[in-house]
Structures are given as C-alpha cells and as structure tokens.
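FIELD: query
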Amino acid sequence: MENLKNIINKLWQPELRWPLIAVVAAAFALGYFLGGGPSGSGAHPHESAAAQGTARVQAWTCSMHPQIRQPNPGQCPICGMDLIPVSSAGDGETGPRELKLSETARKLADIQTAPVERKYVSAEVRMSGKVEYDETRLAYISAWVPGRIDRLYVDFTGTSVRKGDHLVYLYSPELVSAQQELLQAAQTAETVAASGNPEIRNTARRTLEAVREKLRLLGLTEAQIQEIERQGKASDHLTIYSPISGVVIQRNAQEGMYVETGTPIYTIADLSNVWVKLDAYESDLEWIRYGQEVEFTTEAFPGETFPGKIVFIDPVLNPTTRTVKVRVNVPNPDGKLKPEMFVRAAVRSKLSVSGRVMDPALAGKWVCPMHPEIVKTHAGDCDICGMDLVRAESLGYVSAAAIQKDAPLVIPASAPLITGRRAVVYVAKPGAEGVFEGREVALGPRAGDYYIVREGLREGEEVVTHGNFKLDSDLQIRAKPSMMSPEGGEPLPAGHQHDAAKEKGAQSSASQTRQEAIDAPAAFKSALESLTATYFNIQQALSRDKPDEAKRQARDFQTRLQKIDMSLLKGRAHEAWMEMSAKLKDSSGRIAGAQNAEQARAAFEPLSEALYAALKQFGAGGAQPVYRYFCPMAFNNKGAYWLQNKQGVENPYFGAAMFRCGEEVEKLERKQ
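FIELD: result
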C-alpha cells in the first residue's frame, strides 16, 4: 500500500499531472463510444442500416454492382454510387422471392411505392408526313367536242381561278350543226305553239328539250344555250368555263392545238381542303383509329398548330419502311398549307383493357365511314355522301356503357424492371411491413409515364417505383430469384461479373477494332459527321429515358443516312460502306419502330457497333470528339459499348437507373 502511494505521488508531480489527465480522459471517451453510451446499449451508426435492422454490418456493397464488397462505407469503384450495408442476418420467414427491410433500411434505400390503378392514361403517337392535294377536289378540264384551241385564257400553272371563270376559247365545226338543230327545234316549237293539237305541241317541246340537252352534253352552259336561241344564229366557237375555284396545277395544251373529244387541257385543284399523309409505325397502330383528332405543325409556320381528322388508314404495310400510310383531312381556308410541305403530327389516345380507344366525344355516337366529321347521336344517313352511319364501336372505340369498366390497370413506368421478354415488379406485401415480393408481370404498351398491365397485378396493390434496382440487387446478393437471375443460385465471386462481361464485350468487337482505315472524300466525311451528330442525339435521349425522342432522332438518322451519296466512294470503300450502311439502316429502323425503351436500347447496341466501325475505317471531319464507353451490366451482364461526344458516363442502356455505370475505353482519333 505504501508503495502504491509513492507511485501516485510521483505521477502527480506538476510536470506529469496534465499528461496523465489527458490519457485518462481519452480512455474514458473510447470506452464510452465502444460501450454504446452510458447504458451500453446504443448501436453503431451503421449497424441499424443492415437489411434486417438488428444484425451487425459485415460488408458494404453497391446496389447496382453487387459483386463489389468492401469492409467500410464509400463509393462504388465502377459507377460511383454510395455503397449500402449488407447484413449477416438471415431472411427470417420471407419467401424465395421476398425481401424484408427495416424502416431504417427502407429510408436508406429510398424505397418509394405507388398503387396499381385502374384508369385511362394517354399516349402520344408522333408521326411525320407531307401535305398533298385532296383528290376529291381535283377538276380535269378537257375538250367535250373536237376542234382547235384559239385562245387559252390561263396560260401558266399556279394561276388561281374562280368557279365560272373562262378558260378556253375553242373553235368546233361540230357545234354548228348542233346549234342549227337547236334553232330549228325552237322555231318549230314557236310555230306550233298556237296549234290546237296538244300532241303536236308536246312533241315539239320534247324535241326542243332534247336538243338543248345535247348541247349541254357538248359543254355549253344554260346561259350560252339561251343566248343562241335569243340571237337566232349559230356560233362556231365554244367557251369553256371553270367548274370549281382553285389553282391550275397542270396545263396540257397550247393555243392553236387541235384536240379530240376528251383531250385534257387543264387540271385544277381546290386547296380550301387538303390531305396530309402521315407514316405510322406498326408499333403505334394500336393507338390509331379512324376519326381521331390529329394536330400537326409545319416548318413554314413554327408555333402554329393545325387540326385534322383521320379519314383513312392504309390496310397494307410498307415492307421496306415498316410503316402504314394514315390520311388526314385538313381544312385550309386561308391557303397556308401547300402541297409537299413537310409536317410533324401527334395523335393522343387512351387505350382500354380490351384494346379499344376511349374517346368520350364518340362514345355511343354514329359516324359516317367516309366523312368522320359527320357525327350524330342516332342512326341515319351522311349529310355529304348519303351513306348509312355506323356505330363508333365498330370503328374501334369504347362504348358509352363500357367506359368505366373497360379502364385498364396501369403502373408507373419506373416500376417494372424489364430485361428481354421478362418484366419484374416489386410489390409491397400487404400486412407485412417492410416485406417486398418480386413478381413477373405481363405488360401492355407504354402510355406516357405509365405501362398498361395485362396480368400479374391487382388493383390497389403497392408497387415499388423507386429503389427497385436496389431490392433486385439485394436478392442477387442473397442468391434469390431476381431480374437478372430468374432461377436464383449462387452469386458470382467478387469482380467476376465485371471482368467476364468486359472481356466478352471486347471479344465481340475485336474484328471491328482491327479494321483497316480507308481514305474517303471530304464530302463523304462531312455527311458521316452529320450522321454521327444525330447518333449522339439518340444516345442522349436514351440515357435520359426519353424513348420517343430517341425514335424521332432515329427517323432523322435514317433520313440523313439515305441522303449520303454512295457514288462518292469507289472500289473497296464502296463495298465496305454498302455493308455498314445496311447495318445502320436496319438498327436505326428498329429504334424508330420500337414499342418501348427496352427495344430501342436493344437496337442501339448494333447501331453503336456499326457506326464505330464506320468511324474507325473512314474517320470524319469536324471538331466533335468521339469517346467509346463500355457498360459491363448491359443485357444480362453481357456488356455493351456506345459512343459519346463528351467525357463523363451517360449510360444509354439503363438511363437514370444506372446513369453513371460504365467506363471510357477509347478516344477515337478522327482523320481530318
């Protein structure tokens, strides 16, 4: 005891007193935190973030790349996302496709849900086309009698004429005899008018009317016939008048020309109403119906929208473009729309569960099958053509009685995880807090921000709309069935998925990287540069989850590809471009006709490889750089490449879900 006092006295000397106090305070603080606070029951800050909320964290992983395992929190070395904790605890009583998360884990994963609803959602179908003449409003001016053209009052095309304007002054000896018959018949009728025999008077009147009708058939107007009778002498010339108001679009005769009966002289088009012919992709046909309203814009009048109605849908598909012609009737009272103008149109539809289009304005109505603007509440005849009206239901519309019960089940577009032909959603299990079940569903078409559900879900169920990739990754980590692994199984060792996918992707494009460069003219390089710029627009649209914009840019890509003059290339260069352009045309066409983002992304990969091969061989002028990127997770971990015009990953195969997943593998040296 005495020795202990001596030791304490020595340690408490002034020069050792304050260091000793600091050591004791540090030891106390360390024991406080390691012991969990005053009661010793506090949890480590990261401990409660594990999947079950009670087990200690054994490792940290990436929700997008579950092969990544690290002992401490941080960021994924592949995609840069924040790592999430992995618990060593089991799954308790959850099923093979289920996962249970604590409240803390749900917050950490930012899990958000939305109900499965039964309602009509709108889809916008975009089409392009051009303005054409209304074929029903064309008038063909021809010679009704043989003769010689002495005067053409309209001597050039493009002239506007009004109904009744004189067009042609025609000499015809044949008219003289017909007019002589008229004068004789008129004189006879006048002579027998005072006769007491009614039969003779009736015969004379019928003869006079028959001769008048003959002259009408020869092209004379009622006023001309009356003038001949008034003057009492025949004329050897005939004036031809315009039967409609419009624009002369064709002239087929010259002054002094001799013509036969039926010889065409003019073609006149009434432009107060025009046709717009649009190209609709076969994937969009289920949204398009006869009688629908269409809105379109033109380059000539930016910002101005023109309305029209669909009056015809071609029953035959174009096998080359995979499109169907859709004809729209458009009123054009002020003549702004001119034939051959290029237009961009949009149709907005609401599809029912039975595949019919819902339009409250047509529900229960009767429509003319030739003139969709004629809509009535009861059966009857068309006011224009006299055809029998038909029910709107027979044209593909929902009946008034079925509007409510025919509304489809829909889920937000961010809910399903789609890969190939499979679609997986995660459903919050009712009555089991924090339990989520993976379920395969059959999806219908996408309508804006929603998918129509064919089967697999019930109204009122809650589906995960945000954080579903993290749930799927957790199931992969636990070797349970998931989007990537439908049957479950053992997870791959850390790093294996990434390296194997990258190696396979590198092998798939090895032949293209070894291709020999080919010299090409500057004009061809300039066209290829323009094509590449449109490709970048497709890539950016897919990376930002805008499939409709990607489809529009793909159609622009096809147009630019078609305009490239292949005659600029000779010999081996010509043969190489023929092969590449065929691949570019096929893949861009599949993007333009894609039904959803997944199909567009599947077609984007061969488009990227074909364009990469073209740039490696031909190069291109211009200042834009070209970077090549690789994503190991694309297409069930097979991996895929794409091109960008700027640095910084913008993944087109996953969009916002894995926007930064990928790495730069090459910068293309572009030949000037």
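FIELD: remark
The mean pLDDT is 80.
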